[in-house]
Amino acid sequence: MLARADRSAFFATNAPEAMNALKRIAKRAYEALPFKQPVYTALRALLPVPEPVYRHLHFKGVITVKVDERASFRIRHHGHMIENELFWRGLAGWEKTSLEVWIRLCREARVVIDIGANTGVYALVAKAVAPKAAIAAVEPVARVFARLQDNIALNGGGIIALQAAASDHKGTAVLYDQGWADHVLSVSLNPEWNRQDPNLTAVEVPCLTVMDILTAMNQPTVDLLKIDVESYEPTVLRGFIGLVRRDRPTMLIEILNDAVAAEVAALVDGLGYAYFNIDDQAWPPKRAERLSRSAHYNFLICTPEVAARIGL
């Protein structure tokens, strides 16, 4: 029999591995349970389920997300966070204020580009509320792009999907991917992003400017863009700064730190834009005198006239 000290050392060494094995077994058992989607649909209709509970109640299957009384879209639930939030709470469950702003903007937009589209929530919302608009969704990660294409097909097409990263040049670039993850929400062309992750994988991907994207869409300009590229936003802007200065498109843009804010400000200051700092837990977005780190994720950059038309 092992001495007490030896037993302690044995369990200290092996307990984490055993716990991980148990978690894997429990996960496989949960995934094998039948009828989760209809059971959870009934449960959702009967009573409010709090977030600490429903975040564990996920499944795989196609769900329908209501946008308003007239519009909805379908998306495939792969058991990940965004889809689960959309199932349990609808559009109030993910970037609530940003999406309300986006919906209002899409209703009057003719050309829409979703950069950093992931599985396509923003592009799908745009198609649902503006079915006649020209819409493009741009996503560089191959395994995520496949899910984006699937979601577009579930909704009958009508969105141009481009597997590429947006940048300031056309060609190729190195994407720093978290390749160990089945699904990713936060990868970048910026080598400093996620640098604490020892398992980042450098992947060469095609890259396009917004002008190249517009060429693929056969459109001369763009009314509305969502730009979510994890601190690479200034580089994307530089790729179509001439159009920005000429046409002043509306941008819902992620600004995660003050360094990104300063670079974006240097590109757009003096163009007559209004800035709105979006807190996704509050309405309405607050007008800001200058760009800074966002209260949550995003800033709205638009003309005062556009702001007034959507009630800001």
Q: Choose one word for the global shape.
A: globular
Mean pLDDT: 91
Strand order of the largest sheet: 5-4-3-9-10-13-11-12
Query: What's the total helix number?
Result: 12
Helix content, binned percent: 25-40%
Radius of gyration: 22 Å
The parts where pLDDT drops under 50 for at least 5 residues are: none
The biggest sheet, with number of strands, parallel, antiparallel or mixed sense and barrel status, is:
8 strands, mixed
Class by SSE composition: alpha/beta
Percent strand: 15-25%
* Sequence of secondary-structure elements: HHHEEHHEHEHEEEEHEHHEHEEEH
Distance between the termini: 73 Å
- Extended strand count: 13
Overview of the molecule:
- The strands form 3 sheets. An 8-stranded mixed sheet has the order 5-4-3-9-10-13-11-12, with helices on both faces.
- The chain has helices at 4-32, 36-46, 51-54, 81-89, 96-106, 121-129, 142-154, 210-217, 233-238, 241-247, 258-268, 304-309, and strands at 61-66, 72-77, 111-115, 134-138, 160-162, 165-166, 171-177, 201-208, 224-227, 250-254, 274-277, 286-288, 298-302.
- Helices cover 40% and strands 20% of the residues.
- It is an alpha/beta fold.
- It contains 12 helices and 13 strands.
Short description:
Helix content is 40%, strand content 20%. With 312 residues, it is of the alpha/beta class.
Describe the SSE topology.
Elements: H1 4-32, H2 36-46, H3 51-54, E1 61-66, E2 72-77, H4 81-89, H5 96-106, E3 111-115, H6 121-129, E4 134-138, H7 142-154, E5 160-162, E6 165-166, E7 171-177, E8 201-208, H8 210-217, E9 224-227, H9 233-238, H10 241-247, E10 250-254, H11 258-268, E11 274-277, E12 286-288, E13 298-302, H12 304-309
Parallel strand pairs: 3-4, 3-9, 4-5, 6-8, 9-10
Antiparallel strand pairs: 1-2, 7-8, 10-13, 11-12, 11-13
